Amino acid sequence: MDERPVSTAHTLISEIEGHLLAESARAESRAAAETFAQRLDWLSPAERAEVERLYAEDHLTLTRQAWRHIAGRCLDVRGEYEDRYRMLRQRVLAGGLLAASGMVACVIVVLTAR
Question: What is d(CA 71, CA 54) in angstroms, rounded to the nearest whole number?
Fold first, then answer.
């Protein structure tokens, strides 16, 4: 994982971004609930309010589940890419060392042949 220190400003910005994202999801859930309840024109105002509340609650729950799934997948992909990068770095280092040792061997052969 990333071992760089996290600044306080970065943490604060992340928290604010998280709060804004959560509030946006709540507003989206309420709007979706209102749109859904409008189609049920036979409901009384109290029933409509209850349907909107339940719909918004379910919508927000599904949104949270989707975010958790996406966050987990992001961590998985990050781990996969870190592993691949580590392997690539090792291969490049091994290739470089092999090339350098080959050049040293060539120089030794040329110098001893003189």
Answer: 26
